[in-house]
Amino acid sequence: MIWSLLGALAASVCFGVATVLQAIAARNTHAGQGVDPRLLIRLAGQLPYVIGVLLDLVGFVAELAALRSLPLFVVQAVIAANLAVTAVVASQVMKLRLTGREWTAVVVVCVGLALLGLSAGHERAAHVSTGLRWALLGGVIVLFAVGMAAGRLEGKARSAVLGLVAGLGFGAVAVSARALTSLSPLDLLRDPTTYAMGLGGVTAMLFYATALQRGSVTTTTAAVVVAETLVPAAIGIWLLGDQTRHGYVPVALAGFVLAVVGTLALARFGEPVPTG
């Protein structure tokens, strides 16, 4: 199980660095009206974004490996904590100053992750019904439609809704990966969760990039963190049978809360682009 925890941490580092690169590229790319799917094509011409996507892919492989034997609530909390990684890196490389409150938040995140690691039980791929697999794909399609409609909103409401949609997209990727019982190419082609995972990833990337491009970074990032941690954690516990080690439920709950609250305190590092 230690290798799975290391995989989740490696994924968090990859996603944290990728966030920096993708946010810089998003701010340097022409913004269309509403939600423009062509944004991803324009971003593909930006080297920082391409490198960020490659890091995302490496991170996803590490996340997928972690999800084969760790509960969703552990992996998603670790993944969301990539903002702690981003904050520390930004303070050194980009000379962004962390306040005492933010350094405290980094420590809180680390304590929370340590408690989650201590409490994590060993899991296997979840065996879910075919109906639930199709429902997951249908949910992602609805999510995409909601995101397109949310592009017409204004101000923080737009940032919040797009952030929630992006976070749920990331969550759908994690839930789909957790539900995969076979990685055989033929089985993957027949499994609706494969397509839910792909569409969920595209949905998350599109709406996260759109929200960062013209919206409030703090509001967007906070919404993403909440959506990508709480919803998958609940699904994992109620539908996929995720559990803690025997007698460690309070430890897991405390660790999850500390990790999420600490991460939310670092929300401004969703786009650590230096100003001045």
In brief:
This protein has helices spanning 2-27, 39-43, 47-67, 72-80, 82-93, 100-119, 130-150, 155-179, 185-190, 192-214, 217-238, 249-264. It is built from twelve helices and no strands.
Q: Key terms for this structure?
A:
mainly alpha; about 280 residues; globular; 12 helices; single chain
Plain-language structure description:
The structure is a single chain. The chain has 276 residues and is mainly α. Helix content is 75%, strand content 0%. The chain is built from twelve helices and no strands. It has helices at residues 2-27, 39-43, 47-67, 72-80, 82-93, 100-119, 130-150, 155-179, 185-190, 192-214, 217-238, 249-264. Helix 4 packs parallel to helix 12, helix 6 (100-119) packs antiparallel against helix 12 and helix 7 (130-150) runs parallel beside helix 10. It is globular. It starts with a helix and ends in a 12-residue tail after the last helix. The model has no long low-confidence stretch (mean pLDDT 83).
